[in-house]
Specification:
3 domains; 8 strands; single chain; 18 helices; about 55% helix; alpha/beta; Rossmann fold
């Protein structure tokens, strides 16, 4: 707790000064004549007479300070500037890329940036933004996609030497896509690092440090600097080993061979791998993972195929099957009897289904879709994610448009069961003019919100 207050004091002091303090995360900095702020890390040896690599990070929730903190170890190792806006990028890809370019330009005008070493990183939805931007922009040296990415060999023709690192949460909805990129032969020249990590949020700083060093290593990297990168990666591997995280430790440490073998003695890496293999839980977890991953891959393929078929053809009769599948996944996730590997498999599949349904719904919206197709899509959206309030609102509107009073009232109550409280919005749902003045509509609203407009 003492260190937390020291951090706050240093951060606050840094903001108050005209020249930011070096070697600490500064949570709020603004450009001249700007209203939005960003978080910043300057290397301890920062001086205006030199230039430094810059890592520009975008978090889908605008958590700039947290994002910079996760890169501070890697930034210290590589003597890099790190910056991240404390606001979200626009939801439209082209606008988001323009915002990113503007932010990078302002950073370059304000700090001693090495414009040949600009690295982008994005978490979640912003992983799509930065990878799309980097492939089409020769000024971008490297990109780190965390949780999501878009990679296409044809798109990369505009930036053929782009260095790419991918970090995939092992409970993430894009796990299968990121893994497929790691196995894509056409990307082998550009992909310098790929790791999966525990959870669904930001990875540990050890992973981001490895990704950053993998991108920045080249023939000009000194032996001394390279050794410091190796020591950092090895220390992170040892930490996982001490925590008995056998599979994660082995996967991480095994990648260090190709990264360092050409220039460093890697005997310590080899010895650590042997020790990891001796962990009691390593072999059993490896065997479990092999068993479950095969069946999981087949299920993911089946789910993806059925989602596309059902949404294209409005197969209402298959909704019962989907309900059963989601119940089965929930049981596996909630079961304390299941091995964590099996539970994580179920988490991945559930989030994959939710993500794929949303993707296909967006595709459907861009087409001249029939009302029946849109209604099915929204019912499926609410079925795979019972907290998807927009899906219920759309189902209410579409049912009312079709004149199905019972369905309209049913989805209204299901929406309110999610905890929806926007009283005024309930009386503005499109196509519900007749329904919202009915006794039944108002009784349902009054039962959940304690008041109604017409009864």
């Amino acid at each position: 707790m003492r260190y937390f207050y020291i951090f706050l004091f240093i951060s606050s002091l840094a903001v108050a000064q005209s020249t930011p303090i070096k070697g600490v995360v500064i949570p709020q900095v603004t450009f001249d004549n700007a209203t939005n702020d960003y978080s910043l890390f300057l290397p301890a040896n920062y001086t205006e007479t030199a230039t430094y690599p810059v890592v520009v990070i975008y978090d889908e929730l605008g958590r700039g300070a947290s994002a910079v903190q996760q890169f501070s170890i890697g930034a210290g190792l590589t003597e890099s500037i790190v910056a991240s806006p404390n606001y979200r990028l626009n939801d439209t890809l082209s606008v988001a890329i323009d915002q990113s370019k503007e932010f990078i330009e302002k950073l370059s005008q304000t700090y001693a940036v090495n414009e040949d070493k600009i690295i982008l990183s994005g978490y979640g939805r912003d992983g799509l933004v930065v990878t799309a931007q980097a492939q089409g922009d020769k000024s971008i040296y490297g990109v780190i996609g965390i949780g999501n990415a878009f990679l296409d060999k044809k798109s990369m023709r505009s930036n053929e030497n782009l260095k790419i690192a991918l970090l995939s949460p092992d409970e993430g909805s894009q796990y299968y896509k990121l893994r497929s990129y790691s196995r894509n032969y056409g990307l082998r020249k550009n992909l310098v690092s790929y790791h999966t990590y525990d959870g669904v949020d930001w990875p540990s700083a050890g992973y981001t440090a490895e990704a950053l060093t993998a991108i920045l290593i080249d023939e000009t990297t000194s032996d001394e600097k390279l050794q410091s990168y190796y020591n950092s990666d090895l220390a992170f591997g040892k930490t996982m080993y001490r925590k008995q995280e056998g599979l994660e430790a082995y996967d991480f440490v095994s990648t260090l061979k190709d990264k360092y073998k050409k220039r460093l003695d890697i005997d310590e890496q080899k010895e650590l791998l042997k020790n990891i293999k001796r962990l009691k839980n390593y072999r059993s977890n490896r065997d479990l993972y092999t068993i479950y991953s095969y069946g999981e891959d087949l299920m993911a393929e089946e789910f993806q195929y059925n989602i596309r078929e059902d949404m294209n053809n409005s197969y209402f009769n298959n909704l019962g099957w989907w309900s059963y599948q989601m119940d089965e996944l929930d049981m596996q996730i909630d079961s304390t009897d299941n091995a964590i590997i099996k539970r994580k498999s179920a988490m991945r599949l559930k989030r994959f289904v939710q993500s794929e349904v949303e993707l296909q719904y967006k595709i459907l919206q861009r087409k001249d879709a029939k009302i029946e197709q849109l209604l099915f899509a929204n019912v499926l959206r609410s079925l795979v994610n019972p907290n998807n309030q927009d899906a219920f609102i759309q189902s209410i509107s579409l049912s009312a448009r079709e004149g199905d009073v019972n369905a309209t009232l049913f989805y209204l109550e299901e929406l309110l069961k999610t905890g929806y409280t926007d009283y005024e919005a309930l009386y503005k749902i499109p196509y519900t003019t007749a329904a919202r003045i009915s006794n039944e509509w108002n009784e349902i609203i009054k039962a959940y919100l304690g008041k109604s407009k017409y009864y």
